[in-house]
Amino acid sequence: MSVPKKTSAPVADRTRAEAGLPGRALPISRWIVTGIILLAIVLFFVIAGDDWFTIVNNTLIAAIAALALNVLSGYTGQVSLGLAFFMAIGAYTAALLGGTQPTGPLDSQGFALPWIIWLPAAGIVAALVGALVGPTALRLKGFYLGIVTLALVFIGQYLFINLRAVTGGPQGRTFPVPAIGSATFDQQNTFLGLALTSGQQYFLLILPILVLAALFVANVARTRAGRAFRAVRDHEIGAAMMGVNLFEVKMGAFVLSSFLAGIAGALFASYNSYVIPGYWDLTLSIQFIAAIIIGGVASIWGSLLGAAFVFGLPQVIDHFSLLPPPSGNGGLSSGDLNTLIYGALIILFLLFEPNGLIGLVGRFQRTLRASANEKEESSDPAEISDLPFSSNSH
Amino acid sequence: MAYFLQLVFAGIALGCIYALIGLGFSIIFKASEVINFAQGELLLVGAYIVSGGVFVWHLPFLLALVLGIAITVLIGLLFERFLLRRMLGRPPFTLLMMTIGLDIILLTSVIVIWGSQPLPAASPFGVSSGFNLGGVHFATNDLWTIGITVVLCALLFAFFRFTKYGLAMRATALDQEAALAVGINIRRVYALAWGMAAGIATLGGVFLAIGSFTITPTLGSIALLAFPAIILGGLDSVSGAVVGGLVIGLALDLTAGYESNLATVLGAGFHDIMPYLLMILVLLIRPYGLFGSRKVERI
């Protein structure tokens, strides 16, 4: 078991404490960490400028999508390149339901419904599409599934470019903005005497959704369904023999993943207000795969860290970079440097730290704890992993 | 009728390119059960080196071609030896991601070195030369593509059928441990597979570039269309890759040729998804491809 996966059973906690792994045994440090995070959020909220809100809000949205992929690929082990497709379904559902009503024959369709309807609907429609595609896709295993989900992305591109009424065709369309009463989130508003910028309002919308999604996935992961997910990932036939209904479990993971992806897609489109169909392409899917690998496969915190690394960090580097913007004539631009770094990081993490950033954090914690408990316990902190560590390379 | 024949001819030529790319995929998959996502970018690197060699460094075409093949083979061998080999025995998803990492690095390197402006395609003959016969235009490039593919397939067939290493590769594909037990050097088999696939990728890249007159960094993504081709044929079947490639090429070209009749219904770019639709259809009926072997599960 890797560090971030928490099991609720008391027996597991005891063995974890014995093995020197973080479990429920140290609630005080957990409260301290929670406190520090809350403080950081409040501080950020008060001091950060608009640029930083753009970066952070996009990262938080990406974290929701990374969670979605982690449910399907990380916990359940089903290779999927189709995340971008389900994000797009969510985004266009939001656009259709929440967009402004067309005034001319060439305008995109929209029913101007409030966000409290279009945001959940984005998730639900994406989940329904997932349920529709699932039975076909999930008959297949491994690479076959991966490539069918790849096909989904390309079929999606074709549909989005041609369904002009909904997607605005190749030129794209505007997406609805959440509003409370007449206060739309794309401009400064005053709530209860507090003047909030657009970035702050979106932050207050996105962060709770991310927290809810993370709590939900965490709870699914440590209950019966989550154990079934992992059993299917680790050994399908073994899981089936223990009475796990393979189809049901895979469908469950697929639908939950699609739901979260739909929500993330709608939020992204809404926050960035204008998106072209070309955005929802294979590269986007691959970026999320990179995110969960760099952050940590089958881990909640891993999804957040990975999203920050793949979607947040490049923007930060761009912000401070001295390298020239891309010119088309070759030469190293900051964007290229980012891409090179993240390509290399995928390989390096896979080679040396298959549990991702969260694995590094866990290692660091263990080292700290080991030096603290040096005198009390002599049992060596056994490193147990789901994956065989480079057994062939030595 | 001439129009139809023209489409069929061009479709076969296109299919041969997909077959070449698909061969690369299935040789690697057969030997090591890895889907090489970087195949498209190996092809891109090869095509760029050949074009760069001819137009920037003013090398003769054949020398540039040899250089291109040598460098891509080297990249393939180094990647396999120093990165992928350390990961043997890890889940397929992990191995796939390794190749995606390589893919990203290669693509970005090409953009950094050559920029994203189109480069003219290097070719030993006029890129638009050819002759007409019965109303059908036979482009030199298409004829060469078909010819090279046929020759290469024959060579590969002979290699797998009659040589020691061909036998070793087939044995490894059948059962890795048993092959190891009878003394086959599996490492050499992997290296051979990667080298062959990378070399074939460069050939595919050169033909693909000539077919579109110029190369841009997006060329590698065309290789993604070889995925439906190999899935259609069955991932572990080398001849399946060729048949799959031809089917995809024909389907693509015929759809592209006739879709304008139905433009109001189909909209733009329907031919781009035709290979994927075909693939899904085949997978619905045969989940392991047309020529693939059904996997026997052991507990």
Describe the protein in words:
The complex is a heterodimer of chains A (394) and B (299). Chain A has helices at 10-18, 27-47, 50-75, 83-98, 115-137, 142-162, 164-167, 198-221, 224-234, 236-241, 246-272, 282-295, 300-320, 334-352, 356-372, and strands at residues 173-174, 179-180, 183-184, 189-191, 194-196, 274-275. The two termini of chain A are 23 Å apart. The relative contact order of chain A is 0.16. In chain A, the strands form 3 sheets. Chain A has a two-stranded antiparallel ribbon with strand order 1-6. With 394 residues, chain A is mainly α. With 299 residues, chain B is mainly alpha-helical. Chain B has helices at 2-32, 39-55, 61-83, 92-114, 140-162, 164-174, 176-181, 186-211, 219-222, 226-233, 238-258, 263-266, 270-285; strands at residues 119-120, 130-133, 136-139, 214-215. Chain B has a two-stranded antiparallel ribbon with strand order 1-4. A two-stranded antiparallel ribbon of chain B has the order 2-3. The N and C termini of chain B lie far apart (56 Å). At the A-B interface, helix 6, helix 10, helix 12 and helix 14 of A face helix 4, helix 10 and helix 13 of B.
